[in-house]
Design goal:
single chain; about 160 residues; 8-stranded antiparallel barrel; two-stranded antiparallel ribbon; 2 helices
C-alpha cells in the first residue's frame, strides 16, 4: 500500500510540474539574449495578425529587414518571408538595381518544408522565449561561443527572449 501511495504522489507531482510549465507563445518583440562576439543582434516583431518583421543588425552594416508571416504548429514557430521588391534606381538613361538591398538577404534563406508548412526560419517555443534552429543544418542551437575579458572564450546558452508585448 505504501508503494502505491508513493507512486501516486510521484505521478501527481510530475503532473503538477508539467501543468505549471507553458509553451504558450506570446505576441510581441523578441531579441537575442546576447550578441555573440558583439557582431549582430536579431529582433523579431510578431503581430496578432500572424505577420512579423525580422530585423538583423550587423556590425558596421545597415540593418537587414524582412517582412513575413508566421505559423505555429505544436511547439514550433515557422517564419516564411515575403519576397521584397527590388530597389531600382531610375535614371534618365538606365535602371539600376541596388545590390545591397534586402533582396539579397531574402535569397540567402532557403525555403524549406516540414509538416506541410513552407518556411525560411524555425524556432522552438519555450516559456516566453524562442530557441533558434540553424538555417544551414536545421539543428537546434543550444549554446554559442562568445567572449568577454574575464572568461575569455566560452560557450553560453542562446535563445531569443521577449522584450516587449
Amino acid at each position: 500500500m505504501n508503494k502505491f501511495i508513493y507512486i501516486f504522489y510521484f505521478a501527481f507531482t510530475i503532473f503538477l510540474l508539467s501543468a505549471c510549465t507553458s509553451n504558450k507563445f506570446v505576441i510581441g518583440r523578441y531579441r537575442d539574449n546576447f550578441s555573440a562576439f558583439g557582431l549582430s543582434m536579431t529582433n523579431i516583431i510578431f503581430n496578432k495578425d500572424s505577420t512579423c518583421k525580422y530585423v538583423e543588425s550587423r556590425h558596421l552594416q545597415e540593418d537587414n529587414e524582412l517582412d513575413g508571416i508566421f505559423f505555429i504548429k505544436r511547439n514550433k514557430l515557422y517564419i516564411k518571408f515575403i519576397e521584397p521588391k527590388p530597389c531600382i534606381l531610375q535614371d534618365t538613361t538606365s535602371n539600376l538595381e541596388l545590390p545591397w538591398t534586402n533582396c539579397d538577404e531574402f535569397k540567402s534563406y532557403k525555403l524549406r518544408h516540414e509538416n506541410g508548412i513552407e518556411y525560411h526560419c524555425k524556432f522552438k517555443i519555450g516559456n516566453n522565449l524562442l530557441k533558434v534552429y540553424r538555417v544551414d543544418n536545421e539543428k537546434l542551437v543550444r549554446k554559442v561561443l562568445t567572449y568577454n575579458e574575464k572568461k575569455g572564450r566560452y560557450h553560453r546558452t542562446f535563445y531569443m527572449k521577449i522584450v516587449q508585448n
